[in-house]
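Purpose: get a first structural picture of the assembly so the mutagenesis plan has something to point at.
Setup: two entries, given in the order below. No constraints added.
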Amino acid sequence: QVQLVQSGAEVKKPGASVKVSCKASGYIFTSYAIHWVRQAPGQRREWLGWIIPSNGNTKYSQRFKGRVTFTRDTSASTTYMELSSLRSEDTAIYYCARVTVDVTAIFFDFWGQGTLVTVSS
Amino acid sequence: QTVVTQEPSFSVSPGGTVTLTCGLNPGSVSTNYYPTWYQQTPGQAPRTLIYSTNSRSSGVPDRFSGSILGNKAALTITGAQADDESEYFCVLYMGAFWVFGGGTNLTVL
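Result (structure tokens, whole complex):
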């Protein structure tokens, strides 16, 4: 069965960087884009962008451009989200999600369990 | 700025029917936005219920249905059960990015 398993919770100081991993299993890793979404406490969910595992192409939300980087390791079926210059407002649960695209549909079909990133001095 | 609107909370009696909506400000929701509905309980990954407006995801009971009502996407739960008590959120595909609703906390009592 399809699974996305994320790395564990992180606590970082303001100004630091954090790198979250998302390991895929149960499907062909290079066949589906992986997106990243976050939800800060009391806020709505926000889309951060995507990476295409087959070629490493990325697209970032304008709001996070320059601060977020997606990478992947195809040998490990794992994608990574790195967020730099952390501030307290980046405290959130970060999710990876697989997107399915066909003629009649485009949607996040499977999600990781989420990774809590806490930014605190 | 595009904002997706949802009712913050809703209540339904066991066995009852409830319709949650997903609007777009400014504008109207259409099938072109491929509205998708998710259910999420605290500490769990979101579960896909409905995609492309009205297609039920694998394993989702047929008491969950999706539609367009007026200028909004809608999720209807018929015959609500206690374990339907959860957060429901919608997502719209805007062509180059995705926008999320604020979520609806559904209480079954």
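The two ends of chain A are 40 Å apart (CA to CA).
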